[in-house]
Amino acid sequence: MAYTNFTIETDTDGIALVTWDMPGKSMNVFTAEVMDELNAIIDATVADAAIKGVVFTSGKSSFSGGADLSMIKSMFSFYQDEKAKEPAGAAQKLFDLVGRMTGLFRKLETCGKPWVSAINGTCMGGAFELSLACHGRVASSAKSVKIALPEVKVGIFPGAGGTQRVSRLTDAQSALQMMTTGQSLTAVRAKAMNLVHQVVEPDQLIPAAKQMIKDGLKPVAPWDEKGFKAPGGGIWTPASAQLWPAAPAILRRETSGNYPAALAILKCVYEGLQVPFDTGLKIEQRYFTQVLQTTEAYSMIRSLFISLQELGKGARRPAGQPKTVLKKVGVVGAGFMGASIAYVTAAAGIPVTLIDRDTEAAEKGKSVGEGLVKDAVGKGRLTYEDGAALLSRITPSADYADLRDADLVIEAVFEDREVKKAVIEAVEAVLPAGAVFASNTSTLPISGLAKNSKRPADFIGVHFFSPVEKMMLTEVILGKETGDRALAVALDYVAAIKKTPIVVNDTRGFFVNRCVFRYIHEAYDMLIEGVPATMIENAAKMAGMPVGPLALNDEVAIDLSLKILKATVADLGEKAVDPRHMQLVSGLVEGEGRLGRKSAKGFYDYPPKPAKKSLWPGLKDLYPQKKADEIDVTVLKQRFLATIALEAARTMEEGIVTDPREADVGSILGFGFAPYTGGALSYIDGMGVKAFVSLCETLAKTYGAHFAPTALLKDMAAKGETFYGRFDPYGVKAAA
């Protein structure tokens, strides 16, 4: 039989090599067709007496990333459709659907012939669960090998036997750590955890896998052997008596109970280890079915899996524009931000010229890249040769003429209109026709800067976040005259450096900074009200934010906050800024010299390492303090999430952001907005716009008019709409 996604070759020893190589895809993924074919392959190899065993591998540079987008989407659409038709039976039908992969892998595991998974490159999610169902696992020693069960990061968990097999192969603590964090393992670490049997040189992968079968590999999983005991003795041991009471508390400390899938992992392992393996699979299937019905799972998968991939693949790229392969990029401004932009550009294989006022300053900028390369080589992320090649692509210069053959130039100079004006004019004097100029400004509107350009159609904003090499988001900002070609080039560049773009129309603060400063300003309000700083920071983390607003302001720099407040007053008048905020921030910066982390003192004190930062004791003396038991922590959490979500809604109403996917992905990647919500707009859609409007009206009565719901939100509440329905990123309404 011929297969679309697999090839089978049987050697003279009777070992069938099944190679997974999906046509037209850069990576193998699970689809309904793939599972159908795999099911047929199991039947065929069992029926063929000449086949003694099977080696399963990938024909691509990576093994597999897991499930396909369409397969993930189909689970949610299937449940919603069934719920609409027959609410009482919808959960049972979903249970049956999610059990399909579990059943397929169990069929493989009990087929009676030995299977060995030969793992090359990335092996994640369902692909590793398939490997765990094989009787042997061999992994390549190549650095490209990454083994993980990362499902918890998108709101679900390993639901095709992963929780049961991992916890029966390695100790429960390591199993929980791996699955509740979604951490990636190297091949060596996976072997140490007993998750793979051998790690071999890449060219020995298939021979080693075949040798396992020749050596008499038993076609029986350990848990199907009589007398099997889980590593560490299972649940009822002294070691488990220490682990299990602590595990839920540790999880709650880390997640504040916001992630149903993470808690489900604990339940699956704890309950599953007390029963026979097949019963454990049913327990896992039950919890997986429950998690799939949660708002958190739906919202996280939509934003962090589906939307993230769609935006990364150019969902907002203008149609009809040819793809740009960048041959050279210029970066003007060799400070830390510009130097970091040059580094990620060179890391993508693109030659970059780094310009500053003199050669010494430009060379100093390149040294930032040298430090990043040294760190990456030291941690084994880069070879010495690859690091040297990367640095060779960065050319420091003080001569603007060196930009005459650049396809794209990014300015990253000081946030001053006159400084940027001089740079724009100097670059455009040498920039070739058709090349694009991008500003990395974080505060100045692009349309205003473009007035200094003779070619505003080729002028765009590309706003990076610090640290550039770690932050995965970029805002691509359209000026009033920015053309489609400039947008296409900017998006092609962002794709080349492997970051996720959101396209934003021009406004003060764009999207991310508008939302970030609402978060920070709400903390200012709380301080002024007398809420203890410790409660402010902890409430924000309990709401799901990765960093408290005061700590975040220290990272951003408090003197920058003051500068922005002053610029807002200068541009928009005194009423545009809360005078209490101005008094607080100017008092810290100008009165106390507390500028943030960069000055080792801000809202926090930063003593020399290894001592940890701590909140500045003087904060409690700035305003009369409330007693902790007089403060409702739930309301603090609501205020943080609601004020950010309201700002995101305002950007949609103003047409600054036009696609809800970008508001959601931008809010999570840009500043870590409570990922379990799926993002700022999914937070509103998840609770229902009507309920959100009611919450905002309640908050506005006590905490100020900035909580008042907008006209758009009131209209949507009255009509029973959602953001994904009204602003329909997929054109479903238009197509209908």
Key structural traits:
six-stranded mixed β-sheet; 736 residues; Rossmann fold; eight-stranded mixed β-sheet; globular; 30 helices; alpha/beta; 2-enoyl-CoA Hydratase, Chain A, domain 1
Question: What would the principal axes of the Cα set say about the shape?
Answer: globular
Classified in CATH, the superfamily of the domain at 6-293 is 2-enoyl-CoA Hydratase, Chain A, domain 1
User: What is the mean pLDDT?
Assistant: 94
Give a count of the beta strands, DSSP E runs of length 2 or more.
19
Widest sheet: strand order?
Answer: 12-11-10-13-14-15-16-17
Report on the structure:
The longest helix has 23 residues, at 87-109. The protein contains 30 helices and 19 strands. With 736 residues, it is an alpha/beta fold. 50% of the residues lie in helices and 11% in strands. Among the domains are: 6-293, 2-enoyl-CoA Hydratase, Chain A, domain 1 (Alpha-Beta Complex), CATH 3.90.226; 329-508, 3-Layer(aba) Sandwich (Rossmann fold).
Structure described in brief:
This protein is α/β, with parallel strands linked by helices. Among the domains are: 6-293, 2-enoyl-CoA Hydratase, Chain A, domain 1 (Alpha-Beta Complex); 329-508, Rossmann fold (3-Layer(aba) Sandwich).
Topology diagram in text:
Elements (H helix, E strand, L loop, with lengths): L5 E5 L4 E6 L11 H16 L5 E6 L10 H17 L1 H23 L5 E5 L2 E3 L1 H8 L2 E5 L5 E3 L13 H8 L2 H10 L2 E2 L1 H6 L5 E3 L4 H10 L23 H18 L4 H13 L4 H16 L2 H18 L16 E4 L3 H12 L4 E4 L3 H20 L5 H9 L1 E4 L10 E4 L5 H12 L7 E4 L6 H5 L8 E6 L8 E6 L5 H13 L3 E6 L6 H18 L3 H10 L6 H8 L1 H15 L6 H13 L12 E2 L8 E2 L17 H21 L6 H12 L8 H8 L1 H15 L7 H9 L3 H4 L5 H4 L1
Parallel strand pairs: 2-3, 3-4, 4-6, 5-7, 6-9, 10-11, 10-13, 11-12, 13-14, 14-15, 16-17
Antiparallel strand pairs: 1-2, 7-8, 15-16, 18-19
Helix pairs in contact: 1-3, 2-3, 2-12, 3-4, 3-11, 5-6, 6-10, 9-10, 10-11, 12-25, 13-14, 14-15, 19-21, 19-24, 20-24, 22-23, 24-26, 24-27, 26-27, 27-28
